[in-house]
Amino acid sequence: MEFGDKDEKPLNILILAAGLGTRMRSDRAKVLHDLDGRPLIEHVCETALSLKPKKTIIVVGHQADKVRKAVDEAFNGAQIEYATQKRQLGTGDAVTAAKELLSETNSTVLVLSGDVPLIEQKTLRELIAVHKLENAACTVLTVKLENPSGYGRIVRGEGGFERIVEQKDATESQREIAEINSGIYCFDSQKLFHALAKVETNNAQGEYYLTDVPRHMLDSGETVALFLHDRPVEVEGVNDRKQLAAIERMINIETVEKLMLEGGVTFIDPRSAYISATAVIGRDTVIHPNVTIEGDTIIGENCVIRSGTRLSNARVGDNVEIRDNCLVIDSEIGNNCAVGPMAHMRGHAVMLEGAKIGNFVEMKKSRLGKNSKAAHLTYLGDATVGENTNIGAGVITCNYDGVSKHETQIGNDVKIGSDTMLVAPVKIGDGATTGAGSVVTKDVEPGEVVIGVPARSMKSAKK
Ligand code: UD1
Ligand code: MG
Q1: What is the distance in A from the centroid of ligand 1 to the CA of 107?
Q2: pLDDT by residue (tens digit) across 26-60?
Q3: How far is residue 254 from each of residues 235, 267, 270, 456, measured CA to CA in Å?
């Protein structure tokens, strides 16, 4: 099904995201809280944009600038418009705030909630299809829940839909109703604004409820359809931190199970692994307990990731062992490398095939060549290291002079003695050696051996 066909009304999407989210008890707007490492609003926007609507409009209000910034950063260049709701007077008022942006042509308006992040594109397509089929003024996406507490309930009568009653306005018997309003609807735009004008605030919360719109439509003889969906998880709303944690847990379980069953990944303790839904992990890789894998991390086949390790936007080749308690952020590890325990890679650090870093080694914006090693207690910052080079214990690239950062270049087949200080900018030629405890302040020629403080050539030192 394509939207915007010649004879079709265009599709516009409205995402309600102006509320503070009082129940989160937070200084941060609710839709900016992270789920799977990305703000709630980003999840909803991504799904909305995937439907290729004519317009995508976000109603912002509370912390509007921050919400806009988060969305603009995530969807750089996408056509997203914003409507501002000055005071948060309810979901009905939030839709009214977008009236001007939606009034130019008659359209199908799909309303999404910024706090209902798991809704899937397929479900929305089905909702739109039902809406068209029924030629309805409004179609409400509903589900049945074992515990419907907190949601608006769908009251059905003999003729079908009767009204939506909010939890706070519901009678005892209405609270027994399992079918709830997902907060996701399709509207005919003209009929929507016509009915919205009739909405009043005579309810328990003194707000303009969008949920009153379908009843007003019904009263004017319009058709209100219900689309009862059979996957309640998709419409779980995030209103407090308990719900946020429950959804986070649910996504994680799904991700881990998929990796085990479809990806051939072993989890020693699936309950204690936190894996981003966008991560990729290769076959026969083993993930030990308490591992966190964030963002768009990619891990190859046959790797072992030991306990306590966190990988964030990392790229890991095949046959790599990352030992206990390592932190790898925005960095790359080639095939057959070994890392850790307790190593730290950040700021686009790169290890090429077969390289090794060991205990308490930190690499920042540095490159370690093929089969080179830094086994103990080392800092490599702004450094390039060639192939088959050995960095002894306790070596430091002194890259910062208090004002700016400088580079260290180390060639192939070099031996950097333990406790060497390489005062950048400095170059160490191929095959050179530095003595233990040397402080290298000048470039070292290929094959040269330097010792002492400040380091000088062994030949001249003997004289
Ligand atoms: C709403 C529905 C309820 C439904 C539930 C599903 C109403 C009155 N109730 O309740 O029937 O079961 O969603 O999750 O609509 N917002 C604004 N401006 C406002 C108020 C809210 O933009 O003035 C936004 C919020 O940021 C949020 C969304 O609208 O993204 C829903 O608001 P929320 O307060 O969470 O409504 P619920 O109580 O969950
Ligand atoms: Mg809500």
Answers
A1: 23
A2: 999 999 999 999 999 999 999 999 999 999 999 99
A3: 16, 13, 11, 60
Residues in the ligand 1 pocket, defined by CB under 6 Å: 16-19, 59, 61, 85, 88-91, 93-94, 113-116, 151-152, 164, 166, 180-183, 209-211, 237, 239
Q: Annotated active-site positions, please?
A: 376
136 CA from centroid of ligand 1 (Å): 22
Measured from the Cα of 181, ligand 1's closest atom is 12
Q: Give the predicted TM-score (pTM) of the model.
A: 0.91
| 18 has pLDDT over 70 | yes
| 182 Cα nearest atom in ligand 1 | 6
Q: What residue's CA is closest to ligand 1, atom 35?
A: 239
pLDDT (tens digit, 9 = 90+) per residue, 242-287?
A: 999 999 999 999 999 999 999 999 999 999 999 999 999 999 999 9
In percent, how much of the chain has pLDDT > 90? Answer: 95
* Span from the CA of 316 to the centroid of ligand 2 (angstroms): 39
